[in-house]
Amino acid sequence: MKKLFVIIAAIAGLVVSGCASQPISTFPLFAAKNLNALVASGQYQQKIDNFFVINDSSSSMTEEYRGVGFAGQPVPTKFSVEKEILNRINQTIPDLKLTAGIRSFGFGPCLSYQFTQLNLPPVTYSKSSFGTGIDSLICASGGSPLSPSVEGTIADLSATAGNIGVLILSDGHLGSGSVASVKSLKQHYGDRVCVYTIWVGNEEENSGINTLNRIADIGGCGFSTLAEKVASAGDMANFVQKVFLKAGMPVERDDDGDGVINSKDKCPDTLKGAHVNPFGCWVAEIKFDHDKSTIKPEYYDELDNVVTVIKNNPGLSIEVQGHTSRTGKAAYNQQLSERRAQEVKAYLLSHDAGASAALTARGYGWRQPVDTNDTESGRANNRRVEFKVFK
């Protein structure tokens, strides 16, 4: 009995020491593409609310990775490449409100002698928290029983709400029951879940690609890809975009901040604080009764806005322009237009004495009508004061 115990202890020691001696590879600096602008513009919007990784941490992942796209020192194992892929995903995910989690599968000391291990319970996503979860994938050992990990994932996600993206990284040697377990995941969460797979293997293992393709197809909305297809910054950005984002409605810009989007703005340099019409043009028009230069109270708010515009835009030069309808003699109308301009200027100065340097007043008589003088409504539109801005 004592001899048997010594043999078992020796085997366990070899397993532990083999796990601890697995090399850690370093990879060239990865410069992730920034996807935040796509989201901020509205061109794309968030597609999933929960992101859950199932990582193959079985002994086959300790083999050297001989594919392309992940040159590391020392030569990386497939397990090291899996972790590097997750790191690159983490760097590329835009600023989204997510929950994220990680679970691994295999057996032996790397998984506390369990077939599956929850490395990161679903938590509010941040690059640091997800990075901690990746770091907890310390080594690979044992067989490849995917099923217990998927069953655990079903329970892990039970408290989540919204759409779920499940990502499986493996060389495709997943043990019996793997397809059935993913079908169970799909049946449990229905249209909420999409399954994505990344094959991290070598040429002689490409039968695993077919297995991972079948698993991704079960979800009906995910896809399968290869490690080398997500190696570059551009390819990784494309992968993250497809998993996390969907096409949205672009948010049109309003560069001058007047409340009218650029595509409809006929006056793209509106002064700060100015009232505008539906076409984005400053409308500050004061109308007068026939043969009068008295400002009607209904225009006080508009004139107060002109004062605000002057204060918000120092350095302006504004001409207060008086106009009349074509009724009576030209000389009389010229004087009337000047009185109207002076009356408005005086109102503005009474509310902002510092505006005197910005304002001049000029009458134009009946020479610049904006409507016909053949009808009363047309003549009413011509009896006005307008503002012309010189920057």
Automatic annotation (TrEMBL):
A Gene Ontology CC term for this entry? cell outer membrane
Q: Enumerate the Pfam families for this protein.
A: OmpA
Q: What is its main location?
A: membrane
Q: Keywords on this record?
A: Cell outer membrane, Membrane, Signal
Q: Which residues form the VWFA domain?
A: 50-243
- What Gene Ontology terms describe what this protein does at the molecular function level? calcium ion binding
Entries under SUPFAM superfamilies matching the protein: OmpA-like, TSP type-3 repeat, vWA-like
OmpA-like domain span: 280-391
Q: What domain of life does the UniProt record list for this protein's source?
A: Bacteria
Which residues constitute the signal peptide according to the record?
1-20
Q: Where are the transmembrane segments?
A: none
Please name the PANTHER family in this protein's record: LIPOPROTEIN YIAD-RELATED, STATOR ELEMENT OF FLAGELLAR MOTOR COMPLEX
Q: What is this protein called?
A: OmpA/MotB domain protein
Q: Which organism is it from?
A: Candidatus Methylobacter favarea
